[in-house]
Specification:
With 746 residues, this protein is an alpha+beta fold. The protein is built from 23 helices and 18 strands. It folds into four domains: 143 residues, Umud Fragment, subunit A (Ribbon), CATH 2.10.109; 307 residues, ABC transporter type 1, transmembrane domain (ABC transporter transmembrane region fold, Up-down Bundle); 170 residues, 3-Layer(aba) Sandwich (Rossmann fold), CATH 3.40.50.300; 76 residues, Rossmann fold (3-Layer(aba) Sandwich). The strands form three sheets. Strands 1, 2, 3, 4, 5, 6, 7 and 8 form an eight-stranded antiparallel β-sheet that branches. The two termini are 53 Å apart.
Length: 746
């Protein structure tokens, strides 16, 4: 049922209840009747006639199939018909006129702070009348109050979210965080302690003539100089310790965030990874997670440092004059407000451009990645993809520059205002100096005011940066809260070695981003210990079925049983423990040859004999042994001394990895697509030997690979159209027969 249909049914039901003289309680939404009703408060509605309404009543009426609760301002009689005009107490504009046909009823009471307010009482009737007749005067005040309340509420929510984010990202670094907070506190105070000592020194030098004994004066000055030197040394030492501690904190936070990112990514359904909209979310999460968390921690420490500095500055400024303190505060507020405003706009712009950015990254990868290098040169595609990349970059730069230009103009105004306040402050302190301030105090002011202005500016910018980073980091948190798997109750059971087989019963499936059924009500049996093959043209559903058997997706309809266990309610990890596979789009790992094979089963002891046996079964042992460092040689060309393999050799390595896993169920998707005939026969011979104790499913277009299997299923457009062994299918002279005969002529 659509939401609109559901709302219509609920409205009709409520209307029926009101028509039978029942009082109906509803939850008010929005802020249009603030402060009379607040968002989420319960109101009681009563059915009424038009002649029962009075100016100031709060009425419920229908507009475009939506119910609105506003205050009645006017009742107009025209052509023997009654019209009503209403308006929300905090709204500028009046609602369109409505007639009695659209009148639902009036609000007779509401629940406020757990107390019932009777709106039919004379007290509330008079208040309603006053608000209705003087709405032009009252509404602006209500709007200002509402604006302030919503801003405060939003600010409180943002502050709460910032603290939650900081608490979350520093979860594994609490000790380092505390150390860095302490260091930041001292880094904020010590520079101003030195400034105060300089002021003290100047005053001491200025009053040197007041000493009868000059040695006493020199001793006093010496004490101040010694104290200043000591504080300066402590400041330098703390700065060194702070740099080292900040680096360790950065490493700790980065490791924690990346561990969360990688763990979450590996747990996501394949549906997320193959859906464009979800890829936009993942792209933003990965992009922000790379630097936002540590930036947020650094800015929070900068806030601690600035607050410590400002507390010290505030005390010193108040000793000069209280007005100077507030002048600095006023000077930096416009810049702070602008940073908050434009950070929100920047976030919205980046979110809207997520797909464009991914396109840009993709074209850059084409232009700089090795897999595309040969075709780029052969087909002279560099200018084509460069043009695509440049056009997207120009579009993104234009949008960003337009926003930055507006921000720059606003910043010029903010800085002009700040400079005006600063020079006014200078003039005011000069006036105070003429009237008795000491030279040391005047020097203190000029040093403190300049530093104080920049400290306050840094404080506000750091706070604004925290708000900005929190907004962007929400993308990362949203990513972490994506459902890892479909929310289906799963049992704690395990799956052992198959006894009966795999049973696919009436399974249908379509990819989330497609309307076409990839599998359409197919039923297949893979008996335990047998070898089964799937054949069919590209797009017939063969690879999709393997994805379902691996638990990457769940069927839309039907079920898949491993013996008597429905895999939709079994933990996918339990299923995958029994499975090994060679995929058509197998991965290439730039690691040593031994490690590439070992990846087939990282929980199995990595003995060189087992690795060599898997390589021999896959027909890759002779190639690997001839490498300069044998099985310890790096493969691929990303790292030093790496040896590149042909695509056929990489495929053999993928098969060796599958053999090394030695699982009871083996899926092979086009296992010989890149192999020569001799290698295919070698692997086929070993596969027949290995398949005696395994349940095997093979997908292949090469009939030489599948002629010997026990059962062959022919798929076409997601359906099973034929089944049997090779001889039976040839006798049918159907689709399999035609495919086989065609392959002989190629």
């Amino acid at each position: 049922m659509q939401f609109d249909d559901l709302y219509t049914e609920l409205h009709d039901l409520t209307d029926e209840l009101l028509g039978s003289n029942q009082l109906v309680k509803l939850k008010a939404g929005g802020y249009s009747m603030f402060p009379f009703f607040k968002n989420g408060e319960i109101i009681t509605v009563k059915k009424c006639r038009a002649d029962e309404l009075r100016i100031g009543n709060i009425v419920v009426f229908k507009v475009d199939n939506k119910w609105v609760t506003h205050r009645l301002l006017k009742i107009i009689l025209q052509n023997n018909k009654t019209y009503f005009i209403a308006k929300g107490d905090s709204c500028k504009k009046k609602d369109p006129m409505f007639t009695e046909e659209n009148l639902i009823g009036k609000v007779v009471s509401h629940l406020h702070n757990d107390k019932h307010k009777n709106l039919e009482s004379n007290y509330y009737k008079k208040i309603g009348w006053v608000i209705a007749y003087f709405s032009k005067i009252i509404t602006p005040f209500i709007m200002i109050i509402l604006w302030l309340i919503l801003k405060v509420k939003k600010t409180k929510t943002v502050i709460k979210n910032v603290f939650h984010s900081l608490f979350f990202i520093s979860r594994n670094s609490r000790r380092l965080i505390l150390i860095n907070i302490l260091i930041s506190f001292f880094q904020g105070i010590l520079p101003f302690v030195i400034i105060y000592l300089v002021k003290w020194l100047i005053d001491a030098i200025s009053s040197i003539n007041a000493y009868s004994d000059k040695m006493d004066a020199y001793k006093a000055i010496g004490v101040i100089i010694t104290a200043t030197g000591f504080v300066f040394l402590v400041q330098s030492i703390i700065s060194i310790i702070g740099s080292e501690s900040r680096e360790r904190l950065s490493q700790s936070v980065s490791l924690y965030i990346y561990s969360l990112l990688h763990k979450k990514y590996s747990s996501l359904d394949m549906a997320y990874l193959e859906d464009a909209k979800q890829q936009d979310k993942i792209h933003r999460a990965v992009q922000e997670a790379s630097f936002r968390p540590m930036k947020m921690v650094n800015e929070s420490l900068a806030v601690v440092q600035s607050v410590a500095s400002w507390l010290f500055i505030a005390v010193m400024l108040f000793t000069i004059h209280w007005a100077v303190f507030f002048l600095i505060l006023i000077a930096v507020i416009p810049g702070f407000w602008l940073r908050i405003k434009y950070s929100d706009k920047l976030f919205k712009m980046n979110k809207a451009n997520s797909q464009k950015e991914r396109e840009s990254y993709y074209y850059n990868r084409i232009l700089t990645g090795l897999p595309f290098a040969k075709e780029l040169r052969l087909f002279n595609l560099e200018s084509f993809f460069t043009s695509r990349f440049d056009n997207i970059q120009k579009y993104l730069h234009h949008q960003k520059n337009s926003l930055l230009r507006k921000q720059a103009f606003a910043d010029v105004f903010a800085q002009t205002f700040a400079v005006a306040i600063i020079f006014f402050s200078f003039g005011y302190v000069s006036y105070l100096a003429v009237n008795g301030l000491s030279i040391g105090t005047v020097v203190l002011f000029f040093l403190i005011f300049q530093r104080g202005f920049f400290v306050m500016k840094d404080l506000f910018l750091s706070v604004a940066g925290l708000f900005e980073d929190n907004v962007f980091l929400n993308e990362f948190f949203n990513f972490l809260h994506l459902p890892s798997l479909r929310q289906i109750p799963r049992t704690e059971g395990t799956i052992g070695v198959l006894q009966k087989g795999i049973f696919i019963e009436n399974v249908s499936f379509k990819y989330p981003s497609s309307q076409r059924k990839a599998l359409d009500s197919i039923s297949i049996e893979i008996p335990a210990g047998k070898t089964v093959a799937l054949v069919g043209k590209n797009g017939s559903g063969k690879t999709t079925l393997v994805k379902l058997l691996c638990g990457f997706y769940l069927p839309d309809n039907g079920r898949i049983l491993f013996d008597d266990n429905d895999i939709s309610i079994i933990n996918p990890e339990e299923i995958r423990k029994q499975i090994t596979a060679v995929f058509q789009d197998f991965a290439l790992y730039n690691m040593t040859a031994a490690e590439n094979i070992f990846l087939g089963n990282i929980y199995k002891p990595a003995t060189i004999s087992n690795i060599k046996q898997a390589a021999k079964n896959a027909g890759i042992d002779d190639i690997l042994e001839k490498l300069p460092s044998g099985y310890e040689n790096m493969l691929g060309n990303l790292f030093e001394k790496g040896e590149e393999l042909s695509i056929g050799q990489w495929q053999k390595l993928a098969i060796a990895k599958a053999f090394y896993r030695d699982a009871s169920i083996l899926y092979m998707d086009e296992p010989s697509s890149a192999l020569d005939a001799e290698t295919e026969l070698h692997i086929l011979h070993n596969l027949k030997l290995l398949a005696k104790d395994k349940t095997v499913l093979i997908i292949s277009h090469r009939f030489s690979t599948i002629k010997w299997v026990d059962i062959i299923y022919v798929l076409d457009n997601g359906k099973v159209v034929e089944s049997g062994n090779h001889e039976q299918l040839m006798e049918m002279k159907g689709k399999y027969f035609r495919m086989y005969e065609t392959s002989k002529t190629i």
